[in-house]
Amino acid sequence: EPAPLPDYLARLNPAQREAVLHGDGPGAAAPLLVIAGAGSGKTNTLAHRVAHLMLKGADPRRMLIMTFSRRAAQEMTARVERIAREVLGAEGAALAGGLDWAGTFHGMGARLLREYAPLVGLDEAFTIHDREDSADLMNLLRHELGFGLAEARFPSKSACLAIYSRSVNAQAPLDGVLAEGFPKFRNREAELRRLFAAYVEAKQDQGVLDYDDLLLYWRAMVGEAGLGAEIGARFDHVLVDEYQDTNRLQAAILLGLSPQGRGLTVVGDDAQAIYAFRAAEVRNILDFPGLFTPRARVVTLEQNYRSTAPVLAAANAVIGEARERFSKTLWTARGEGARPGLVTVHDEAAQAGYICRAVLEAREEGTALKDQAVLFRTSSHSGPLEVELTRRNIPFVKFGGLKFLDSAHVKDLLAVLRLRENPRDRVAGFRVLRLIPGIGTATARAVLDALAAPGAGVAEALGALRVPARAAPFWPAFRDMMLNPAEAPWPAELEAVRLWYEPHLERLHEDAETRRSDLLQLGQIAAGHGSRSAFLTDLTLDPPDATSDESGVPLLDDDYLVLSTIHSAKGREWRNVFVLNVVDGCMPSDLGTGTTAGIEEERRLLYVAMTRARDALHLVTPLRFYTHGQRARGDRHVYAARSRFLTEAMLPLFERFAWTPQGTAGAAARPAVQPVDLRARMKDMWR
Ligand code: ATP
Ligand code: MG
Asked: 255-288, pLDDT tens digit by residue?
């Protein structure tokens, strides 16, 4: 008689258990794909698999776990720890502590590259450019090469970066990328090629890598005979969540790590692919089984554990209209629950009012703010709501929007740290030197050339520089700071740099006081990172989010409402979910230029939003909304219609009602008027 299953396996359904137990015998496991719908327990199954493999003797230090965000990776290791603790107590928890290769593709790439830098011709102290820095470097080179100065119709700096990045991530030739995504720049191919060559050379000269390089170099490393084998041999298991949103490069990295697929587990849902705009390739997940001989084992999961039946029915109806047929049926045992709301409001102000009211009511009824989320297509859509929440003192945290690091003063301070880490980083250098009055482009170039002098030559080169009179009072402090990059140990160094920045902060910003408190907060964040280099890498790759709290850092034990872009809500769930602006023009956005593929991606986006809800879902449609300068049409109010993704036939799945703010003065206080179609009346007159 077989022994009874341990609890952590017994509570899984048979398909989940099959995925968890797959290949747990002696020898390396054959590749495994778990492809299943939203809320079917994919992430949970992955966590159980990691725990199970570990409990069966797999070495946690030889497992590589890659998820969509650093937060998701932390949640994953925390889950594994809970399971391991359940089985083995403190010993299990200690075991899970060995899982230190868990993070995003980019984060793990940065770590491996730092380690192997000397072997592949990179400087170990490389700094990482975020998208804005990359665009700035592109711009610098564009001007140096004289492109697009005389005539218009050369791509903007961000378009240049987008073209470059798509070509790299999709591993597609430039002419194809231009023809498909940027047809009006097709005749610029030769210039773009020169620009990109200069861009690559500049990054190498300056010892900087951009986001794409983290994958590109990693891909190249695993493609090398000796090095590839060495890196592949470090990991017995490589496990990836949200695989539908990986790009060609990431798929190539996995194959490089394990050409036969041994020890590979990937998990995802093709109906939730929402990153095609960043060159993600849904074919990755569909093609996965066929990459290997014998083919990868495929497990599908069909029970949804997240949502009530009415919520799931509405979400299924929306995705059921997709052009692509997703071969998954989801059912839930959670039969009870209300139909999702489809709420009509007059405009975005009323939308904000409705949400504040509904959120507070739900809290009264026992749903904490933390168990509620408001989701939107684009970060700017939450503006009116943020104002209203602030006015009513409802605390919130915003994910995927403006990052704490996007503010000028925080970027300034980080640029100083980056320049100390890597004095050849010219984008950081220009940013820092711009702070000093009197230093123009020519002087800045001379200073940066001096800083790039080898070894002890820097002091001499800086000493020989003549700076303009206006810069003179600030010069000694800058020079001394750059000459002593290691004067204070980390994180005390940050304080030293902050003191250097202080007079500039006062000079440049009227609201120096609030900005100063941001920088002090940055000091607190710094304390959690072991070194300047680790701090800079982590912050650049996965910046902290902005909050209603002025400090910019969430107070984790407070109750707060979550505001998030749909993209950043991936993989998460809340009891109560609101979706803003479910109107044509927002969802789908970009009506005028949307391609079929683009529209289909927007449909999946709405599906992702709806499937975040556990108990209650509310879709809000303002009759009027404000567009924010899209497509050169400028900011303006437009009249909106319910999103085309909600067809007439679906309406019975929703509880429909109009909501008007009560007790406000003026026009908004007028009672709700039911719309009538007078055209029909006119025709009836003659019947
Ligand atoms: P998404 O597609 O949104 O990423 P997912 O498939 O990864 O969703 P999970 O987040 O892992 O789904 O699980 C959804 C919810 O269902 C979670 O609250 C999880 O704890 C719960 N769940 C998963 N499997 C089971 C199970 N066997 N029994 C009970 N609850 C489960
Ligand atoms: Mg998941």
From this structure: 999 999 999 999 999 999 999 888 888 899 999 9
Q: 457 by DSSP, 3-state: which?
A: helix
Give the strand order in the sheet containing 32-35. Answer: 102-103, 63-66, 237-240, 264-268, 32-35, 297-299
Measure 572 CA to ligand 1 centroid, in angstroms.
10
- Helix, strand, coil: what percent of the chain each, to 5? 55, 15, 35
Q: 586-629, pLDDT tens digit by residue?
A: 888 865 557 888 899 999 999 999 999 999 999 999 998 776 54
- The whole-model pTM stands at 0.86
For the residues 137-159, what does the mean pLDDT come to?
Answer: 84
What is the chain's Cα-based Rg? 27
Least confident of 151-155, 188-192, 268-272: 151-155
Between CA 589 and CA 133 the distance in angstroms is 27
pLDDT in tens, 477-500: 999 888 876 667 888 899 889 999
* Residue nearest atom 24 in ligand 1 by C-alpha distance: 41
Q: How far is CA 322 from CA 154, 301, 304, 571, in A?
A: 36, 20, 20, 21
Strand ranges, E, within 547-682: 561-565, 574-579, 613-622, 624-627, 636-639, 655-658
* Interval 58-86: pLDDT, tens: 999 999 999 988 889 999 999 999 999 99
Contact 167, 173 (CB under 8 A): yes
Closest CA to 539 of 403, 419, 442, 383: 403
Q: Residue 263's closest CA among 521, 17, 22, 510?
A: 22
Instruction: Answer whether 564's CB lies under 8 Å from 399's CB.
Output: yes
Angstrom CA distances, 302 to 18, 34, 299, 315, 490, stand at 13, 11, 10, 15, 50
Q: How far apart are CA 199 and CA 196, in angstroms?
A: 5
- Angle formed by the axes of helices 174-181 and 189-206, nearest 10°: 120
- CA distances, 628 to each of 277, 347, 443, 632, 637 (Å): 20, 15, 39, 10, 9
Name every residue whose Cβ is closer than 8 Å to that of residue 329 and which is 6 or more positions away in sequence. 302
> For residues 571 and 569, what is the distance between their CA atoms, to the nearest angstrom?
6
**Cβ 305 under 6 angstroms from ligand 1:** yes
Cβ contact 180:173 at 8 Å: no
Residue of 34, 50, 306 with the most ligand 1 atoms within 8 Å of its CB, for mutation? 306
Give the residue from 306, 385, 247, 292 showing the smallest Cα distance to 40: 306
Average pLDDT, the chain: 88
Q: How far apart are CA 678 and CA 234, in angstroms?
A: 72
pLDDT for the residue numbered 548: 46
38 lines ligand 1 (CB under 6 A): yes
Q: Give the H/E segment covering residue 159.
A: helix 157-169
Ligand nearest to the CA of 41: 1
CA atoms of 630 and 589, how far apart (whole Å): 10
User: For 575-591, what is each residue's pLDDT tens digit?
Assistant: 999 999 999 888 888 65
Token pair for 380: 């700017």
Q: How many CB atoms lie within 10 A of CB 410?
A: 21
